[in-house]
Amino acid sequence: MLRIFVIVIIANAAMAQVPFLGTCPNLEAAQNFELDKYLGKWYEVERYFAWFEFSGKCVTANYSLNENDTVKIVNKQISSLTGVATSIEGIGRLIGRSDDSKLTVTFPSLPLPFDAPYWVLDTDYESYTVVWSCTNLGVFNVRNVWILTREPKPPVAVLEKAYQIIDKNNISRAYFIRTDQKNCPGSY
Ligand SMILES: *[C@@H]1O[C@H](CO)[C@@H](O)[C@H](O)[C@H]1NC(C)=O
Ligand SMILES: *[C@@H]1O[C@H](CO)[C@@H](O)[C@H](O)[C@H]1NC(C)=O
Ligand SMILES: *[C@@H]1O[C@H](CO)[C@@H](O)[C@H](O)[C@H]1NC(C)=O
């Protein structure tokens, strides 16, 4: 049990997931996924919150293809406390068919790199994506959900589409926090 807790704490420090009792719900990832259209820059507008999470603002993700067809991930953020910008590089891999929107994501520079699931529940490629990550850990599971958008301050209609996906999948909205995307450096 202790070991599970240590893993959860490390995993949470890295991925800031929220623990739930039981196993991961059986959700369906997006069909006919087109990775090419998904690449590029996304802004994090909301994510699941865990109390031990370090605060970051101006969080962005940039996805591009590596030469071996894995996905190069560059996540950037600015510390709300210190104002210091940091970035972390990861690798994403499609785990099923190429039109299946299920990936695993690894950040090799983390103290405990592990393959985290990254499922696109739905995206229109042009304005929003809803990303689901759930890992079974014994008697409970840890979850994260992200709403990423192409614009740092998306119109309400775009957020509504994302919320519809979240509601359709019975994902609780209670753990969402808004990511601060105000006063971010333009070139960032
Ligand atoms: C995203 O990453 C690609 C590949 O490294 C790079 O060419 C592109 O300029 C980046 N885009 C942004 C907006 O940072
Ligand atoms: C694919 O390329 C990336 C970037 O060069 C590298 O970090 C990664 O280990 C490679 N993955 C595989 C499965 O070859
Ligand atoms: C969401 O909950 C409703 C009512 O309990 C259920 O009918 C539906 O199948 C659930 N949907 C998913 C994706 O779990």
Helix-strand blueprint:
Layout: H1 2-15, E1 18-21, H2 35-38, E2 40-48, E3 56-65, E4 71-79, E5 85-94, E6 102-106, E7 116-123, E8 128-137, E9 140-149, H3 156-168, E10 176-178
The structure holds 2-acetamido-2-deoxy-beta-D-glucopyranose (NAG) (3 copies).
Please explain how this structure is put together.
This protein has helices at 2-15, 35-38, 156-168; strands at 18-21, 40-48, 56-65, 71-79, 85-94, 102-106, 116-123, 128-137, 140-149, 176-178. It is of the alpha+beta class and 188 residues long. The chain has one domain (2-178): Calycin beta-barrel core domain (Lipocalin), CATH 2.40.128. Strands 2-3-4-5-6-7-8-9 form an 8-stranded antiparallel barrel. A hairpin with a 7-residue loop joins β5 and β6. The chain is globular. The protein starts with a helix and ends in a 10-residue tail after the last strand. 24% of the residues are buried. One 2-acetamido-2-deoxy-beta-D-glucopyranose binds at residues 25, 169-170.
Care to give the gist of this entry?
The protein is of the alpha+beta class and 188 residues long. The chain is built from three helices and ten strands; from the N terminus they run H-E-H-E-E-E-E-E-E-E-E-H-E.
Overall domain count:
1
CATH architectural designation: Beta Barrel
List the helices and strands in order: HEHEEEEEEEEHE
Annotated CATH homologous superfamily: Calycin beta-barrel core domain
Bound molecules: 2-acetamido-2-deoxy-beta-D-glucopyranose
The top-level CATH class is Mainly Beta
Terminal CA distance reads: 42 Å
Q: How would you describe the shape?
A: globular
Helix content: 10-25%
Signal peptide: 1-16
Pfam family, one: Lipocalin_2
Keywords: Glycoprotein, Lipid-binding, Pyrrolidone carboxylic acid, Signal
Protein name: Apolipoprotein D
